[in-house]
From TrEMBL:
GO BP: negative regulation of DNA-templated transcription; regulation of secondary metabolite biosynthetic process
One Pfam family here: FUR
Keyword Transcription among record annotations: yes
Name under which the protein is recorded: Ferric uptake regulation protein
Domain of life: Bacteria
Organism: Pseudoalteromonas translucida (strain TAC 125)
Binding site for Zn(2+): 99, 102, 139, 142
Length: 145
């Protein structure tokens, strides 16, 4: 899906939920939509400063909090980075394959893995409220190089 289609879909989600897709939020969304893999908050800030010279760390973090709250992005905890979710129009299980060499991130949606985790958790009396599984390794391109 191209960036304009993603932005249009995001605006529609915001309208449906009564949320404001401000120009800053849209710019951060577009930066993440054009990224390959995860991007750190300060890298996003530097990119945003190209058009928003007065942007501060709080500007980025507020935008990221908003985008995460609406399910538009995933936080990659192990690398403290963020990536756009291209499937934000529905709730889904998330597994991330992260290349330690080039930083590429592939998002998977295995209901089998999600179901197994929930079943194992339930056996121990635990209820999973959210899950993002991260797996590190090397992508096909880096393994071939």
């Amino acid at each position: 899906m191209n960036i304009e289609s993603l932005v249009s879909k995001a605006k529609q989600v915001c309208d449906n939920r009564g949320a404001r897709f401000t120009p800053i939020r849209e710019k951060v969304f577009r930066l993440l939509a054009s990224a390959q893999g995860g991007v750190g908050a300060y890298d996003l800030l530097e990119q945003l400063k190209v058009t928003e010279t007065g942007a501060k760390p709080a500007t980025i973090y507020r935008a990221l909090d908003f985008l995460a709250e609406l399910g538009f992005i995933h936080k990659i905890e192990s690398t403290n980075a963020f990536m756009l979710c291209h499937h934000f129009d529905h709730i889904h299980p998330v597994q991330l394959l992260i290349c330690d060499t080039c930083g590429f991130v592939k998002e998977l949606h295995s209901t089998v893995i999600s179901h197994e985790l929930n079943s194992l958790a339930a056996e121990g009396g635990f209820v999973v409220s959210a899950q993002t599984i991260e797996a590190h390794g090397r992508c096909e391109s880096c393994r071939a190089a």
